[in-house]
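Researcher: For the annotation table, I need structure tokens for Acid phosphatase (Class B). Please keep the output clean. Sequence:
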Amino acid sequence: MKNVYRSMFAGVFVLFTTGCASTANNNFNSLLWMQSSSEYQANTLQAYNSALMHIDAALGDTLWTAAKEQVPGCSKLPPAVVMDIDETVLDNSRYMGKVVLENGQWSAETWDEWVALKEATAIPGAVAFINAMKKKNVTVVFISNRECGKRDKSPSGCIQETDTIENLARVGVADVSPEQVLLKGEKDGWTSEKKSRREDVAKKYRIICSSVMIWVIFCLMSRKISPRPSVSGLWMKTVRTGGKNGLYFRIRHTGPG
């Protein structure tokens, strides 16, 4: 009987550890593809360029709206574009690289440490798209599930909003006001479900484009690209970049494959 239990335990252990390894490898492969593949960069650029091509038509047609939350009479409202932030405008793959290489998991605490560093880079095409909106007098409103929360020795208010605005400025998106950044928990009723925030924006603006539209274009194009590379057969180099609260990683493909 003891042998039976030992066999059962060994089987469960192998299954559990294999599942963990598989998840880690999948995350690693995804990060590798995002950080090193020319296909990813080309597709994000093309997605934003394709969205930009439709903006003039949207501006010219006052009945055009990209939001089902749009209120009646929206044709008289000023135009706006609604965008997510993370992995739409800001690239947080260095944070995820740290998680993967340390065999860890995403947590609210380590994520907030990363937000405080304000070191996320820009998704290719995002900054040019946002700055093009400014030139066309289109307001860009960011709706993100970055969460407002207390932080030791931080001033009152949503310090995460301040960090986010500063990070956006660092990548080239300047002069963003707090009114343009709507974070989870910033107001009562602003939960992870973004509908209430979109409704708030739709009362003030005619929403002519959203990041949902942009990434639908991206997903359609992504179906045509080659499969993401596997780790096997690649020469890998890990570049570690120092941060105030730890090391954050960029994974680079430096060899053939």
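Researcher: And a one-line annotation?
Model: Residues 2-36 form the longest helix (35 residues).
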